[in-house]
Amino acid sequence: MSARNLILPALALGAGLLAMSAFTVREYDRVVMFRLGEIVRTDFAPGLHFKLPLIHSIRRYDGRLLSLDAPPERYLTSEKKNVIVDAFIKWRIADVSLYHRSTRGDERAAAARLSQIIKDGMKNQLSSRTIQDAVTGARGEMMDAVRAAANTEAAKLGIEVVDVRIKRIDLPSEVSDSVYRRMEKERATVAKAFRSRGEEQAKKITADAERQREEILANAYAEAQAIRGEGDAEAARLYAEAYGKDRDFFEFYRSLEAYGKSFTSKDDVLVLQPDSEFFRYFGSPAGSGKR
User: Fold this and answer.
1) What mean pLDDT comes out for the span 154-174?
2) Domain map of the chain by residue range?
3) Is 116 in contact with 64 (CB distance < 8 Å)?
4) If we measure between CA atoms, which residue out of 33, 117, 112, 124 comes closest to residue 76?
């Protein structure tokens, strides 16, 4: 076999060994190097690294911040009341060697153990606090305590708990229904009180408006009567003045008015003596005629 024929296989073998020997580490990778199954190194910086083929092997883990959405759990408060808490956890790998040994690198197993740690910490905190503490300003203090306690246990798994947050706190359905009914009753009582005060104010406003109406009508009636009295007085004065100027014409005019008011219909009947004073102007405009 010629030397040229040996060079090509040698180059291919070298390229294969180089490919099996070289590996890259990204910024967020956590890499464990094994030598025949035993951990020999974990402190790899980002970049290109080498290993011995067939002797060394590597395993990568995600070193970024991970989220765990814990399932809602029921807890008992210091008031002996049940609450359902829905929380989430932010965590990451702190010690990749310990993480591999404790969880065999299984993220689901790590999440399950971490979830139980958080559950125990939440139970301890809520058992010494009231519902009001859990939903008001004391919630932050409670979460800090849960995170600190969780980190003590999570450190044994090579995990760091960065944050624990409560998404929502609910009462069990049987309790919340009772609370809603009580709240509805309280709101109905408040609404009834507002309605009663509104009706009372409406009655006061209506009574005041009626009083003002009566006052206005009374004042208007009094003013109308005064004006009517002045008109009647003026009319009487004018009648008296006219009577004084021509007494006969005045009596004749008043008699015509009396005739007009008495005979408003052709069916009117008036039973009087023909020679009565009422008919004095029927026979003569001067009032001297008799029938």
Assistant:
1) 85
2) 15-62, 66-171, 176-245, 247-291
3) no
4) 124
Closest CA to 165 of 57, 275, 90: 90
Q: Tokens 């206005």 identify what position?
A: 216
Tell me the sheet residues that pair with 49. 23
Q: Which two structure tokens, joined as six digits, stand for 43?
A: 């402190």
E strand map for 133-199: 159-170
Cα separations in angstroms, 16 against 20, 170, 231:
6, 60, 132
pLDDT digits over 130-150, tens only?
A: 877 777 767 788 888 889 999
Cβ–Cβ < 8 Å for 162, 66: no
For domain 66-171, give the fold: Tetrahydropterin Synthase; Chain A (3.30.479)
Write out the two tokens for 198: 């509104």
pTM of the model: 0.54
Question: Residue 65, Cβ neighbours under 10 Å: how many?
Answer: 12
Residues in a beta bridge with 164: 89
Per-residue confidence band for 291, with pLDDT thresholds at 50, 70 and 90:
very low
Name the residue type at position 230.
E
d(CA 198, CA 100): 72
Asked whether the CA dihedral 69, 70, 73, 75 is positive or negative, the reply is negative
Distance CA 19, CA 23 (A): 8
Calpha distance 90→147 (Å, rounded): 10
Q: What is the CA radius of gyration of the chain?
A: 56
Confidence of residue 162 (pLDDT cuts 50, 70, 90): very high
Beta strands in the chain (DSSP E): 22-25, 29-35, 38-41, 47-50, 56-62, 66-69, 73-76, 82-93, 159-170
Q: Is the CB of residue 261 less than 8 Å from the CB of residue 241?
A: no
Average per-residue pLDDT in the chain? Answer: 80
